[in-house]
């Protein structure tokens, strides 16, 4: 789960980490009031969407020369003008895709006199089973270019959770940022605070870009992004309440209500599979046969008829779907239960696209008989390779 910048800064502040003063706003009037609560005379008005590149982004509804989603304002009137231009309009960045995201929230913060910008992030390194802390002296909007063109300017420090954060980790971060004196000490303290927040809140990623040094040599978190392990949210109700469903794909939100793992993709073959590994293999073999998957959808090991029906409805809400491939291996899940769900779903949604089903495992023969006796045009497949070939051929035939 992702949260907005202002929410992430609230969490960091709770861990004693320095952030500029700021207030969230849902309306132009709230943005003006937020600015009035800040010392000024420089303010920053930031669009709050779950995507990076806001500063370089463009609004669909505004002139091409209009400023992006992060703007400096030198008066309350300029704050008001920026808020009127941003709220309700669609911001397109390198991370949103061409469709962009509508701006429904703003964050008005105090301006900072910046002396230098740095980059600092933490994420789970699944290869090593450790936490990776990544630091660079080249923070700011062009960090992607730094990673591509000058990777030597990026340093990775790995931390074993079993050992925990040690003083040498903090020194390594300060050294990587080339800080001396008091700012060196600040960086060591900050690195420890960030690591503790990362673990305590079960984050998957914490990115600070930029981390800035102001003219008084204070380190401040100027912008931050956070994502959390969805499986651990039950332990952090305060974080769970920060979820903004308007920033998520509606189909993915609906899928989560049925405990389905769904991610929309760009292809035309809808997939319903049980097990993440099997789902990945299914998507690969669809592509091997010349088509592209329209989604990743894992119904899990204990799917019911209700869940299978919901999965079908979610898949078919994507107008790009021209056919569906169901690939089920019945271990915990029974093939006859899945077959009943498929038949019920096909009837409920008045299925109008080709459907190929491959069943294997517990009660497979009973499942196949249910499909055969359903009276529906369901194509049965013997194995995964056969299923992929058949759904691609059926889609081409239907076209």
Would you give an account of this structure?
The protein is an alpha+beta fold. The chain folds into 3 domains: 21-110, ATP-grasp fold, A domain (Dna Ligase, domain 1, 2-Layer Sandwich); 114-240, D-amino Acid Aminotransferase, Chain A, domain 1 (2-Layer Sandwich), CATH 3.30.470; 250-398, Succinyl-CoA synthetase domains (Rossmann fold). The chain has helices spanning 5-14, 28-36, 76-86, 143-149, 167-176, 181-200, 237-240, 250-257, 276-288, 305-316, 335-348, 364-372, 384-398; strands at residues 22-25, 43-47, 58-59, 70-73, 90-92, 101-102, 106-110, 114-125, 130-136, 154-159, 203-214, 219-221, 224-228, 261-264, 269-273, 295-298, 323-330, 355-361, 378-380. The strands form 5 sheets. Strands 8, 9, 10, 11, 12 and 13 form a 6-stranded antiparallel β-sheet that branches. It has a 4-stranded antiparallel β-sheet with strand order 1-7-2-4, with helices on one face. The radius of gyration is 25 Å and the shape is elongated. The model has no long low-confidence stretch (mean pLDDT 91).
Output the CATH topology of the largest domain.
Rossmann fold
Q: pLDDT under 50 segments (min length 5)?
A: none
Q: Provide the structure class.
A: alpha+beta
CATH homologous superfamily identity of the largest domain:
Succinyl-CoA synthetase domains
**Biggest beta sheet attributes:** 6 strands, antiparallel
């Amino acid at each position: 789960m992702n949260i907005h910048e202002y929410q992430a800064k609230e969490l960091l502040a709770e861990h004693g980490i320095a952030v500029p003063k700021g207030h969230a706003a849902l309306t132009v009037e709230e943005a003006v009031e937020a600015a009035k609560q800040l010392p000024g005379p420089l303010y920053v008005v930031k669009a709050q969407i779950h995507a990076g590149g806001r500063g370089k982004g463009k609004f669909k509804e505004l002139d091409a020369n209009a400023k992006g989603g992060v703007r400096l304002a030198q008066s309350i009137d300029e704050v008001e003008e920026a808020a009127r231009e941003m709220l309700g309009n669609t911001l397109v960045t390198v991370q949103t895709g061409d469709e962009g995201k509508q701006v429904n929230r703003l964050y008005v913060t105090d301006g900072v006199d910046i002396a230098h910008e740095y980059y600092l992030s933490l994420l789970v390194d699944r290869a090593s089973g450790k936490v990776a802390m990544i630091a660079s002296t080249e923070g700011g909007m062009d960090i992607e270019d730094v990673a591509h063109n000058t990777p030597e300017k990026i340093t990775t420090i790995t931390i074993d959770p079993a050992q925990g954060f040690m003083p040498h980790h903090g020194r390594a971060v300060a050294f990587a940022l080339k800080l001396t004196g008091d700012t060196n000490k600040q960086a060591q303290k900050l690195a420890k605070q960030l690591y503790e927040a990362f673990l305590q809140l079960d984050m998957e990623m914490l990115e600070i870009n930029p981390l800035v040094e102001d003219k008084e040599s204070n380190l401040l978190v100027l912008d931050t992004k956070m994502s959390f392990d969805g499986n651990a949210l039950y332990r952090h109700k305060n974080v769970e309440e920060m979820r903004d469903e308007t920033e998520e794909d509606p189909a993915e939100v609906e899928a989560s209500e049925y405990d389905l793992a769904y991610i929309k993709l760009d292809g035309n073959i809808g997939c319903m599979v049980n097990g993440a590994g099997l789902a990945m293999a299914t998507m690969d073999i669809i592509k091997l046969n010349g088509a592209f998957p329209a989604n990743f959808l894992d119904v899990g090991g204990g799917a019911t008829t209700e869940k299978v029906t919901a999965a079908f409805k979610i898949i078919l809400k994507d107008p790009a779907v021209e056919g569906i491939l169901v690939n089920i291996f019945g271990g915990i899940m029974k093939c006859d239960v899945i077959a009943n769900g498929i038949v019920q779903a096909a009837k409920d949604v008045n299925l109008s696209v080709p459907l190929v089903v491959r069943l294997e495992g517990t009660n497979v023969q009973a499942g196949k008989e249910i499909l055969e006796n359903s009276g529906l045009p369901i194509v049965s497949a013997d194995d995964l390779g056969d299923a992929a070939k058949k759904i691609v051929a059926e889609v081409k035939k239907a076209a």
